[in-house]
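## retry 2 of 3
previous attempt timed out at serialization; input unchanged, resubmitting
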Amino acid sequence: MALPEKLILVCQSFRLGKEPKGICHKQTDGLLQYIEEGILDRGLDVQVATTGCLKQCEKGPVLVIQPDNLWFKGVNSEEAIDAILDGMESGTPAAEYLLS
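## retry succeeded, writing output
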């Protein structure tokens, strides 16, 4: 299996002790499936993985695209996911969700 061109990391809030903290895991229910479907629909060469806490709780839910190192905040809706995936497709990141 070939390595994907990009990797999307989705914060799931887990910290030491395996206890979820913060808000990311609470606000992304169902969105992982939506991200996967959006990737397939657009024909993107992207893998999705969940992570432990990315320590940006006040800006969460957080999503990171690697290797571009683009961090996105407030990713808690299908509209946000669509904007981010559309930006991946066009090569222009969804500025309204960029974490700076």
